[in-house]
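Sequence in, structure out. Go.
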Amino acid sequence: MHLFRRLFGVEYMLPAGYDAATCELPTSSAMYREFIRLAIPSVCEMVLISLINMMDTIMVSGLGTDAVAAVGLVDQPRMLMLCFFFALNVGITAVVARRKGEGRKEEANQVVRNMILIILGLSFVLMALALPFADPLMRFAGAEKGRTLEDATKYFLIVGAALPANALSMGICAAQRGIGNTKLTMYVNITSNMVNICFNYLLINGIGPFPRLGVVGAAIATAMGMVVGLILCLVSLFRGKAHDSFLQISLKDDWRIKKRSVMDVLKVSSSAMLEQIAMRIGFFSYAKIVAELGTDAFAAHQIAMKFLNLSFCFADGLGVAGTSLVGQMLGRGRKELSHIYGIIAQKFSLIVAIVIATCCVVFRSELVSLFIRSDEGQHVRELAEIVMMIVGAFQPFQMLAVVVSGALRGAGDVKYTAKIMLLTVSVMRPVLSLLAVYILNNRMGLGDLALMGCWSAALIDMIVRMILMLKRYRGGKWHDIKV
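Output:
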């Protein structure tokens, strides 16, 4: 019993310089309940979205492994376009959470109004710049003419045209998470993704009066889901003053850009932008390196990535709760509580990591079989099952790295997280992957083993990232950052 208390009692999670006897701490059960209250909707949202996206790939897999690879090739170029908005969302969540803790409602709503205008303008500019270069971009990503290029290009064009709807709904959800309204974002994202799945079924296969469009149908369904998500997000903000919500806006409000509101967000987002660009360039480079190993290797890689992304969503959901609570507690001037909530998130993440790692290793054959339905993909199946072993090894390191970095971002310590992502994702992962491909594939002709080398490079990146994030968290410098 004493050991359990030492592991999970909040009085043992205080940062250096604080004494449990003099601090007015809530009970352990109260703090765990508050964390769980925010974490459960957030985890459900993230995981269900990932499962639905996985269903999207499973549906596409009925068209063959080339179709799986084609859709997968679009992921990183699309994420590169979205990196600007991911960065803004970090700032939006951190600032809104801090204003919530300070009780400054009007300032929080002013931030939301200004960010809506900025996101809309930026999304249309990026869409206009990227769509004319869809074909060369997909070629650069590693698409093969005659196998994946045509489908990848069509998919990118359709999903890219929905960028404004996607970016704006993401921004509004980021603000809602900042005030702890994770239930709303869960409903929004699950509904939009269910629309995606429904129209996937109808348009990929040509059910009833709907035409059989294949990969193009999957793209149209994805875009429709994004539009539905935006509508639900706007309704959550424009419901009128009668609703008791911290975030409420109206067309009658002052929509002029306020320098102070924008600068508050950009102060956090500027470093997050560096982090996002570093991440996306790193992930894009990594995907391109793997794609050079051939369509079969990339299809196996893409299948394993679906499960890695699913496990990431568990960590991301826990991290969202930590981000919100860390920001709110710092806004109230309770540094010790923000520190404790971050540690609570870490403990939950390790428990979840053990469960997921076990499932990835024990049930790897059954999981891979969801994406490969015939003997035609036997080689891809064998490769994917081996990679799933590495996915299992990822879990504790990924969970801790994601949750701790989320807490640091909630405190506004984005410069440090940006530097770490630049070092690990943009430099370490691509360089080690290139080395593995050069030695194992180019020199020794062992293409299958080179794929394992690329995944091992990613695992090393994650281990280093986790160590550096934990070191920063335990140092406590983030307690005093002003937002």
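Check: Residues 210 and 258 are 47 Å apart (CA to CA). The chain has one domain: 2-16+26-477.
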